[in-house]
Design brief:
This protein is an alpha/beta fold. The chain has one domain. It is about 30% helix and about 10% strand. The strands form 2 sheets. It has a 5-stranded mixed beta sheet. A hairpin with a 6-residue loop joins strand 2 and strand 3. The protein is globular, with a radius of gyration of 18 Å. It starts with 6 loop residues before the first strand and ends in an 8-residue tail after the last helix. This is DUF429 domain-containing protein.
Length: about 290
């Protein structure tokens, strides 16, 4: 299963406002070996450029990992937005809804969705604005995020938009990109794993860091030396880089190497907690068993 991939692409994502983002990092590892390399863009990547890469320039037989949540919690309450009659029935409908409500937002932003008079009631936003349907505490979680916790990670609810570690904005902007694919690249597990061709999966870079010998509390790598230690742990050739480096680039490089080392494992494509209903509504994080 999944032995046909030739390129392993990890994308560290950003939900921030603006055209270009230095925090978007793209790394590629090749099947034949060698150290993973960064795909650079002057001034940083934009989200529309990443969408164009995925739809027009992606090498054949690529496994692409996006560091974002590909959906929102559904299983816990039987709906993404319980009590809202327009709540979508599955992940693809959710992507379409977000994209439609945000069609005026530049650079595939998602501000219009979280500020929507009804949708905003389900999110925790800046300025102490917690919607009455947020759920309190740490917020709602997907089944895969509970499984992430069991593997030593510390996930955040995709309904939380507050704090440096929040992933809600990244996930919502990422869903606009997924909608923009228009089915040209399958997104596992919302789409079944094909026998050939390219596939996009959700990744959590902390899983790769843990597999590379680091702990969840020390998942961030900020030097070339630390990077090469992690890559060697994953069976990858080192980059030879030294000195300070940004953690976004390091996350992408380590995760590209991790994807290459683990894509062939059948248990990662058939996690025990993932039912067909969860697959089509909440999705799953690749590497969570």
């Amino acid at each position: 299963m999944a032995d046909h991939f030739e390129h392993f692409v990890a994308i560290d994502w950003s939900g921030a406002k603006g055209a270009r983002h230095k925090s978007i990092a793209i790394a590629v590892a090749h099947r034949e070996g060698g150290a993973p390399v960064l795909a650079r863009m002057p001034g940083g990547w934009s989200r529309p450029e990443v969408l164009a890469l995925l739809t027009e320039e992606l090498p054949a037989n690529s496994l692409v990992g996006l560091d974002l949540g590909i959906s929102l919690p559904f299983a816990d309450q039987g709906a993404f937005f319980p009590g809202w009659e327009e709540s979508p029935p599955d992940a693809r409908s959710l992507w379409a809804m977000i994209d439609t409500l945000c069609e005026q937002d530049e650079y595939l932003g998602a501000g219009s969705f979280v500020d929507h008079r009804i949708a905003s009631r389900y999110f925790r936003r800046h300025g102490g604005r917690e919607g009455e349907h947020f759920g309190g505490g740490r917020g709602r979680f997907r089944v895969t995020e509970f499984a992430q916790q069991e593997q030593g990670c510390k996930p955040y609810s995709n309904f939380n938009l507050v704090g440096a570690a929040q992933v809600g904005k990244s996930s919502l902007t990422g869903m606009r990109v997924l909608h923009g694919l228009e089915g040209r690249v399958p997104v596992w597990p919302i789409d079944p794993l094909p026998a050939g061709g390219s596939v996009i999966v959700e990744i959590y870079t902390a899983l790769a860091a843990i597999a590379a010998g680091r702990s969840a509390s020390r998942a961030k790598i900020r030097s070339g030396e630390e990077l090469d230690t992690a890559l060697t742990h994953l069976g990858s050739a080192p980059t030879g880089l030294s000195g300070p480096m940004d953690d976004h680039s390091a996350d992408a490089l380590v995760t590209a190497a991790w994807l290459r080392a683990n894509a062939h494992r059948p248990e990662l494509w058939t996690p025990q907690g993932m039912t067909s209903e969860i697959a089509r509504t909440e999705g799953w994080t690749f590497g969570v068993v």
